[in-house]
Design brief:
This protein has about 280 residues and is of the alpha/beta class. The protein has a single domain, classed as P-loop containing nucleotide triphosphate hydrolases (Rossmann fold), CATH 3.40.50.300. Helices cover about 40% and strands about 15% of the residues. The chain has eleven helices and eight strands. An eight-stranded mixed β-sheet has the order 3-4-2-5-1-6-7-8, sandwiched between helices. Helix 1 crosses helix 11 and helix 5 runs parallel beside helix 6. It binds adenosine-5'-diphosphate and magnesium ion. The site of magnesium ion has 5 residues, from helix 1.
Length: about 280
């Protein structure tokens, strides 16, 4: 497998922006359990960063069960499976997504659902993919990496490429225990990756805070550190409706509560000096 095929003579040279001196901050979105809202949050964070003027890349890191493209309602011509097959270079698999009226356009590196090749990448291939993403990050201000469910090695290898992982957790005990398992395994595997928590699908803010306290207390007791809370996102059927219609909620109803909550989290994630968001 090659991520850097020799440039064919007849392939048009893709115009990429000039390389930055410092790489983008890479934020991975993880959870352990599936179906908690990682892809919804990844897309919303990417849109929020883009609307704030950050050049943003959203990577579908759910190898084998990718669905960023489905939630965005796009049909990309190429994707990570083509990269793995050696047909295109990593940067040539990037697809621009129009932000519509919101001016929040960003780039996507799509996956391919049902791709056995992506689902069964060897550890070397994932390590090379992670290295390729780190190199590609030089061309962006912000990279969002939507991870798959589970805590297996390949998921951790991708997560290790991130500066920060946002754990999406709901109040279901299975979500909380799977998230704790993810946090524990990643802490052992990549201790320098900062881990923060966002509680999704909250019925009330107080309930979200309680869920956070339960998980973070377990981390403090058994792992010796307490991940910070980056925010709570309220449950709203509008999220499900937007996904069903394959349109992003941030473009159709930017004032809805889950979107306002996610934008607040985007502010928190970029709250380091010099990284402030203005949206
Ligand atoms: N804040 C929310 N309010 C209501 N439903 C939500 C919310 N976030 C996610 N969901 C529901 O959870 C489902 C799974 O979301 P998704 O982003 O695909 O999860 P994951 O990527 O973790 O598998 C969505 O189809 C939607 O119905
Ligand atoms: Mg997903």
């Amino acid at each position: 497998m090659s991520f850097l095929l020799p440039k064919s003579m007849d392939r048009p040279e893709k115009k990429m922006p000039p390389r930055r001196v410092t790489p983008a901050s890479i934020i991975a979105v993880g959870s352990g359990k599936g179906g908690v809202g990682k892809t919804f949050m990844s897309i919303t964070l990417a849109s929020a960063f883009a609307q704030a003027g950050k050049k943003t890349l959203l990577v579908d890191g759910d190898l084998g069960l990718a669905n960023v493209d489905v939630q965005l309602g796009i049909a990309p011509e190429t994707d990570l499976a083509a990269v793995i097959a050696g047909w295109v270079e990593l940067e040539d698999a990037v697809t621009p997504v129009d932000g519509g009226s919101t001016q929040g356009g960003f780039d996507v590196l799509p996956g391919r659902s049902g791709s056995g090749a992506l689902a069964e990448l060897s550890s070397d291939e994932v390590a090379r993919l992670a290295a390729g993403l780190s190199a590609l990050a030089l061309q962006y201000d912000q990279v969002i990496l939507d991870l798959g469910a589970g805590i297996e090695n390949n998921c951790m290898r991708l997560a290790r490429a991130a500066d920060k992982v946002v754990m999406i957790i709901t109040d279901e005990p299975t979500s909380m225990t799977d998230a704790y398992a993810f946090i524990k395994v990643l802490k052992g595997y990549a201790p320098n990756v900062e881990q923060v928590i966002a509680i999704n699908q909250c019925e009330t803010r107080a309930a979200g805070q309680r869920t956070y306290e339960a998980v973070s207390r377990a981390c403090q007791t058994f792992l010796g550190f307490r991940p910070a809370l980056s925010g709570t996102i309220m449950r709203d059927d509008a999220v499900r409706e937007a996904i069903r219609s394959q349109r992003t909620l941030i473009s159709t109803d930017p004032s809805s509560q889950p979107i306002q909550d996610a934008i607040a989290i985007a502010h928190t994630l970029l709250s380091e000096p010099g990284q402030a968001l203005h949206c």
